[in-house]
Amino acid sequence: MIFQKHTISLETRNPIALIDITPMVNKALADSGVQQGQAIILSQHTTAFININEKENRLLEDMTTFLKRLVPRDGDYLHNLQPLDGRDNAHAHLLGLFMNSSETIPVSDGKLMIGQWQSIFFVELDGPRLRRNVLVQFSGI
């Protein structure tokens, strides 16, 4: 049984961004040597998440617009009165209630078993940030 851990580090440039990390996860999988098993992809942040969805530019714009409308950044949030790190980011934490911090994906024949139109996204909700980390762990044979 193989257990391999990889860290993907990202810099984000926008307040809300959907970043396709599928190529980085695929490279880490190839480096791991796992042929049959699973991949766990975890955002190590409370204001950034992992999502599987379709990569199409207009859809990505729609998603960003939807998130901004769902929980506006300038809302009247108690968390923003005394934020722990000086960032008015209650909106990002609230949006996180609807998202996953991790995804588990089966691996077969050394490939992620995602669908034809699926990509793995790192969803930034509190950018820009100089460094964000995604932990990828593979287990299998």
Automatic annotation (TrEMBL):
Gene3D superfamilies: YjbQ-like (2.60.120.460). It comes from Chlorobium phaeobacteroides (strain DSM 266 / SMG 266 / 2430). Belongs to the UPF0047 family. Coiled coil: none annotated. Transmembrane segments: none annotated. Pfam families: YjbQ. The lineage of its organism: Bacteria, Pseudomonadati, Chlorobiota, Chlorobiia, Chlorobiales. InterPro entries: UPF0047_YjbQ-like, YjbQ-like_sf. Signal peptide: none annotated. This is Secondary thiamine-phosphate synthase enzyme.
